[in-house]
Amino acid sequence: MSAQHRTAAPRTSGSLARSRPRYGELAVKVVLLLAALVSVLTTVGIVVALLEPTIEFFSEVGLGEFFGSTTWGPLFNPPAFGVWPIIVATLEITLIAIVVAVPLGLASAIYLSEYATPRVRKVLKPVLEVLAGVPTVVFGFFALTFVTPLLQDVFPFLGLDGKNALSAGLLVGVMIIPIVASLSEDSMAAVPNGLREGSYALGASKMITSVRVVVPAAFSGIVAAIILAVSRAAGETMIVAIAGGFKSVFTLNPANEMATMAAFIAQAGSGDASVGSTAYKTIFAVGSLLFVMTFAMNYLSARMVQKYREVYD
Amino acid sequence: MAILSTPRSAVQLASKGRPLREHLFRIALLASLAIAIAFLAMLIVYVVEEGWPRLDSTLWENQPSIRRPETAGIQSGILGTLWIIGLTALMALPTGILAAIYLEEYADKTKWYNRLIELNISNLAAVPSIVYGILGLGMIARWMQFGFTVMTGALTVSLLVLPIVIISAREAIRAVPPSIREGSLALGATQWQTIYRQVLPASVPGIATGSILALSRAIGEAAPFLMLGAATLVRFNPEGVWSTFTVLPLQIYSFIARPQEEFAILAAAAIVILLAILLLMNSVAIWLRNRYQKRW
């Protein structure tokens, strides 16, 4: 509507037309555009920073060894470059996190959007924001010094290591609850009231309306929220570095210490690999893999929203 | 979507005489939310309790020390964080806000390059922070030869929070109704005059809230700094933008990595300081939003 107003130029009144070009206005626009282009430069920078060492890495190691073997230890002597253990560890910790975060986050979102009174919402939403603002190194500390000992006491049969994928995954899950909750709530809040009222008019209860009407109507937004949370979990570094450890064993047992891709980058990047060595270039190869994985997930998330979004008026 | 279309679902929609299930569902939802909140409460109580013995002035007056963990402090970390945040605010906030103005007020959404910029920003917002660390290491520290300095750290974190600043500033600008702009344009103001005198003043609270939240993200960030050689126990304060540095979250990380019990206590005490700073910033942001939020 506004665009129509603005572009409907009064052609008949020629005197109102711009009499001279406004260079100041143009300069402003150029400056603003340059600011917007900084973000494009960032992406270019990331790709360039990753690409060259990655190509060098693959000319030294080869794709076959990288994707074809299951022993990971670029910092060992002799080094091993089979990337699967850290991919599996990343996926496993992400899975644990999702199992924690999706039910809790989604239930929180339904409560905030459908059940909570405005007053309650005004108190609870900031609390979730505070949870979202807790630094990940704090979660890592909590996982290592509180959650792991607690789990070891309560479930001794699990045989948890001092550092393990289970605690790390649980805490990554808690970290992404606010992402799932707040983005899902946004899309549920966007479902028009007419749908709810129609459901009530058919005799449905509040629960049935929430689960069968609101959630399906907000589905694309919810899936996008979950995908975004998955990509955040897969790239999380500090929690897994502190509570999940750096040891890389090809295993599925979450009681074991296991290094994820991000944890490896953190370990090798914080000085454990000397500049120019193959181990150093491994940082960039793993970084590229992580970047491509999260990029693909974000793209998928954006497409989900675009393709399946219900447009209500 | 066929939500209400089939008769089967219409039958299932009816819910005669099932108040108990309704009740349990509501309780389950509330319990989920309560778990998340209880977790936050537990975490705060735990770190305060753990760090309590070290929460005194020696914490911020002393420098970290490997040999005397019982009197070691975090002064270099606190000052490093202040330097980084100050520089990040100077670099990321103006750039982000200007970019948001461009995207909301000037960009023609039908042009491919504007759509590319938008897509790019939403993608950048989800790139893992450790990848920004690689960017800082590869491009800023090595290629631009800024080394492992405060400047490198601040530039890296500025790029990291830039998408967050842009996204939140855009939301604040979008919340200003078009009628305000039309009124201003109708009175003969140019587009920039309209933005500068009408749109920006009206969206300042929203922009400020988003900016504070973005900076608080920058304060808690540790992973990128790990790549920038700031992991060691730096025992002196940064003296300028070209000085080596450490930040509080990374200092906490290096304490956690040490086996002695004293370092765990020190880490907990440092976490209390970090959380206190972040809670303060969050409260200011939430207060700003509630106080100045306008309903048009």
TrEMBL record, chain A:
GO cellular component, one term: plasma membrane
Keywords per UniProt: Cell membrane, Membrane, Phosphate transport, Transmembrane, Transmembrane helix, Transport
Membrane topology: Multi-pass membrane protein
SUPFAM superfamilies: MetI-like
Residues spanning the membrane: 26-51, 82-106, 127-152, 164-183, 213-231, 279-300
Record domain ABC transmembrane type-1: where: 87-301
Main location: membrane
InterPro entries: MetI-like (IPR000515), MetI-like_sf (IPR035906), Phosphate_PstC (IPR011864)
Subcellular location as annotated: Cell membrane; Membrane
CDD domains recorded: TM_PBP2
GO molecular function, one term: phosphate transmembrane transporter activity
Keyword field contains Ion transport: no
Family: Belongs to the binding-protein-dependent transport system permease family. CysTW subfamily.
Record-linked PANTHER family: PHOSPHATE TRANSPORT SYSTEM PERMEASE (PTHR42727:SF1), PHOSPHATE TRANSPORT SYSTEM PERMEASE PROTEIN (PTHR42727)
Annotated NCBIfam families: phosphate_pstC
General function of this protein: Part of the binding-protein-dependent transport system for phosphate; probably responsible for the translocation of the substrate across the membrane.
Protein name, UniProt field: Phosphate transport system permease protein
Organism: Planomonospora parontospora
Automatic annotation (TrEMBL), chain B:
Single GO MF descriptor: phosphate transmembrane transporter activity
Pfam family, one: BPD_transp_1
Location of the protein in the cell: Cell membrane
Start and end residues of each ABC transmembrane type-1 domain: 78-284
Entry annotated with the keyword Repeat: no
First-listed, main subcellular location of the protein, grouped into a coarse class: membrane
The entry's keywords: Cell membrane, Membrane, Transmembrane, Transmembrane helix, Transport
Bilayer topology annotation: Multi-pass membrane protein
CC per GO annotation: plasma membrane
Spans traversing the lipid bilayer: 24-48, 82-103, 124-144, 150-169, 263-288
UniProt record, GO biological process: phosphate ion transmembrane transport
Primary role: Part of the binding-protein-dependent transport system for phosphate; probably responsible for the translocation of the substrate across the membrane.
PANTHER family membership: PHOSPHATE TRANSPORT SYSTEM PERMEASE PROTEIN PSTA, PHOSPHATE TRANSPORT SYSTEM PERMEASE PROTEIN PSTA-RELATED
Protein family membership: Belongs to the binding-protein-dependent transport system permease family. CysTW subfamily.
Protein's name in the database: Phosphate transport system permease protein PstA
Organism: Planomonospora parontospora
